[in-house]
Design brief:
single chain, 328 residues, alpha/beta, 3-stranded antiparallel sheet, 7 helices
Length: 328
C-alpha cells in the first residue's frame, strides 16, 4: 500500500486527518462530526482501493472541492450534526486531561492508576504479552498497563481524545488549560518524565475505533480493560459477545462503570440492568453475569471512586463498580 502518510491541516489547507497505518491506509479520524463534507469516490490522482466508487474522502468545509471528485449533497442540515459527539468539545477534552493526568482531589486516588492497580491485584496472569484499553479516553490507563504488558492497544471512539494521548506519547509533553471561574483558566503541563512513563516496559499504540466494531487485528489479548464504557454503548451485549472472542483462554475482562444508563446513549431495551424483569429488580451486575457466564467466571467485584473537576469549586464525585472476569 506504499509509505505511511501523515496529513495535517497545515500540510494541506483544511484537510483533517490522522496518521495512517501502512497496512490499512485509512484516515483514522472520524469525519461525521458536523464539520466535514464527504466526497464520494476517488479522483484522477487516486490509486488502489481509493479509486472505487465506495471510497469516501472527508474535507473541512472551507477546503475547495478537488477536480475529479464526485460530490454528494446531503439533505441533512450540517448544523444539526455539530453535537453528535459531546466528547469532541474543547471543554470536555481539558476536563478529561485533568481527570486522567491532573491533581487528586478530596483524597480520592487517580481513577485510572487506582483502577489498573486494583484489577492487577486480583488476577493471576499467565502471559503479559497483550492488553487492550477499550474506551481509553485520553490514555492514562494505557500507560499504566504498559508497565506490565509488552504491547498495549488504546482505543477510543473520540478521535480528539486519541489525539491527546498520541501527542503525549510522541512528544513527551501535553499542555492544556482548565477553567477556574467564568472566563478565567489555569494553565497545566504534564510530561512522561513527571508521570514516570519515560521507560515503559511495553509498546503503546493509540487508535480511534468503535468498541462494537473493532478491526480483526485487535485480538489475542491477555487482558481487556473496559473503563466507564459499558453504559455508553448503543448495544452493550453485542460488545460483550464480540470482545469475548478477542481474549485468550485464561485471559481477563475488566469492566468498570457507574451504570448511569441513559437513552441518549443506549436504547432502553438494550440496557444490561437498572430495570424491572418480571416485577423484580434486575441490576447491571445481573445482566453482566447472564451475558458473560457462558464463557467467563466472576473473580472479584470492587468499588472504585473517582472525582472529575469541572471548575475550581465544582466537582463530580462518582463510584464505579469494577467486575473482573476470567475467560474459561
Amino acid at each position: 500500500m506504499g509509505n505511511v502518510w501523515q496529513w495535517t491541516e497545515s500540510a494541506i489547507d483544511g484537510f483533517q486527518g490522522f496518521k495512517v497505518h501502512p497496512l490499512y491506509d485509512d484516515f483514522s479520524t472520524p469525519t461525521f462530526d458536523g464539520q466535514h463534507n464527504l466526497m464520494k469516490g476517488g479522483s484522477w490522482i487516486s490509486t488502489g482501493n481509493e479509486t472505487i466508487p465506495e471510497s469516501r474522502y472527508a474535507f473541512r468545509r472551507h477546503f475547495y472541492q478537488h477536480a475529479g471528485f464526485r460530490y454528494v449533497a446531503s439533505e441533512q442540515d450540517p448544523a444539526s450534526m455539530e453535537n453528535l459527539n459531546i466528547y469532541e468539545t474543547n471543554e470536555l477534552i481539558a476536563q478529561y486531561l485533568e481527570f486522567h493526568y491532573g491533581n487528586e482531589y478530596f483524597s480520592v486516588p487517580n481513577f485510572c492508576v487506582n483502577g489498573v492497580k486494583q484489577c492487577l491485584q486480583e488476577i493471576s496472569l499467565h502471559s503479559t504479552q497483550r492488553a487492550l484499553d477499550i474506551g481509553c479516553s485520553v490514555g492514562r490507563a494505557s500507560f499504566e498497563l504498559a508497565k506490565r504488558f509488552d504491547h498495549v492497544d488504546g482505543i477510543d471512539f473520540s478521535a480528539r481524545f486519541i489525539q491527546q494521548a498520541y501527542a503525549l506519547l510522541e512528544q513527551g509533553e501535553k499542555r492544556y488549560t482548565i477553567p477556574t471561574e467564568g472566563d478565567l483558566v489555569e494553565f497545566k503541563s504534564i510530561t512522561l518524565d513527571e508521570l514516570g512513563y519515560q521507560n515503559l516496559k511495553g509498546d503503546i499504540h493509540f487508535s480511534q475505533g468503535d468498541a462494537c466494531n473493532l478491526k480483526p487485528q485487535f485480538t489475542d489479548y491477555d487482558l481487556v480493560y473496559a473503563s466507564n464504557l459499558i453504559d455508553r454503548l448503543a448495544d452493550p451485549k453485542a460488545f460483550l459477545h464480540s470482545i469475548a472472542k478477542r481474549i485468550v483462554p485464561g485471559g481477563y475482562l475488566v469492566i468498570t462503570s457507574p451504570y448511569t444508563w441513559l437513552e441518549d446513549y443506549t436504547p432502553k431495551d438494550m440496557w444490561l440492568g437498572g430495570i424491572k424483569v418480571n416485577g423484580e429488580n434486575f441490576t447491571t451486575l445481573d445482566g453482566l453475569t447472564e451475558t458473560l457466564i457462558p464463557h467467563f467466571e466472576l473473580i472479584a467485584v470492587k468499588e472504585i471512586p473517582f472525582v472529575i473537576r469541572e471548575t475550581k469549586r465544582k466537582f463530580q464525585h462518582t463510584v464505579s463498580e469494577m467486575t473482573i472476569w476470567r475467560k474459561r
